[in-house]
Amino acid sequence: KKRTSISTLHKMKQKGEKFATLTAYDASFAQLFDEQGVAMLLIGDSLGNVVQGLDDTLGVTTDDIAYHTRCVRRATQGALIVADLPFMSYATPQQACENAAMLMRAGAQMVKLEGGEWVCDTIRTLVERSVPVCAHIGLMPQSVHVMGGYKVQGKSEEDAARILRDAKAVEAAGAQLLVIECVSKKVAKAVTEALSIPVIGIGAGPDTDGQVLVMHDMFGISAGHTPKFSKNFLIETGNMQDAVARYVSDVAEGRFPAAEHSFD
Ligand code: KIV
Ligand code: NA
């Protein structure tokens, strides 16, 4: 089986084919997701919340992400493997290179980092040194204490315009993929249409090229609170394999996210 590559996702965007992605942290779930055709698996720093029982993602280290990346990589054959650079692991381009190298050696094919215009130097440095980058804008959980909570982003005209500027800036800096979290469907649609790289949404409405969910949220078993934009796919299917298959086909066919999972 051939692994999904970044060019696979770019072609899907060009053809208008929507794709489903999930977070994964361990071999058993990663294998299940891989078998159900999940295009990309993200070893997210959400592991702080759903695996480590922390209140936020700030306690997660690059070593933690590397460990879980190895677990996921070994158990999969088809999915593109993306690993989060955690809080303060990319404060300088130099640190970003060292920590990204650790994640790539652990089996990641791409790293993800949070930020817009201000991380562009870091994105350029990583890409020039052969590390593919996924940027993450909108709600950025590593900035929760700056934002004063987890809130929908881009509500004013000014903030919406800044998000669009950030999206264009990270693409121009060389990011090959973009995650946009917790913004209105209007903002996400504008960003998706403005960029030629694939845009993956979470709490960002139905118009992005791909979707991502934290795996525990889609099974309805998160230790903390389950966000409005998520859906428990286990209720209507009754087993994990079918829940994941349903998520994948609901995204591909445009049934998820529905209006009740989106922000206006
Ligand atoms: O850490 C994570 O799980 C993420 C996704 C929600 C995009 O960054
Ligand atoms: Na993350």
Automatic annotation (TrEMBL):
It catalyses: (6R)-5,10-methylene-5,6,7,8-tetrahydrofolate + 3-methyl-2-oxobutanoate + H2O = 2-dehydropantoate + (6S)-5,6,7,8-tetrahydrofolate. Belongs to the PanB family. 3-methyl-2-oxobutanoate binds at D45, S46, D84, K112. Mg(2+) binds at D45, D84, E114. It comes from Gallaecimonas pentaromativorans. Binds 1 Mg(2+) ion per subunit. Keywords: Cytoplasm, Magnesium, Metal-binding, Methyltransferase, Pantothenate biosynthesis, Transferase. One of its GO terms (molecular function) is methyltransferase activity. NCBIfam families: panB, PRK00311.1. Its cofactor is Mg(2+). One of its GO terms (cellular component) is cytoplasm. It is found in: Cytoplasm. This is 3-methyl-2-oxobutanoate hydroxymethyltransferase. Its EC number is 2.1.2.11. The active site is at E181 (proton acceptor). Catalyzes the reversible reaction in which hydroxymethyl group from 5,10-methylenetetrahydrofolate is transferred onto alpha-ketoisovalerate to form ketopantoate. It is an enzyme of class 2 (transferase). Pathway: Cofactor biosynthesis; (R)-pantothenate biosynthesis; (R)-pantoate from 3-methyl-2-oxobutanoate: step 1/2. The keyword Methyltransferase applies. Homodecamer; pentamer of dimers. GO terms for biological process: methylation; pantothenate biosynthetic process. Transmembrane segments: none annotated.
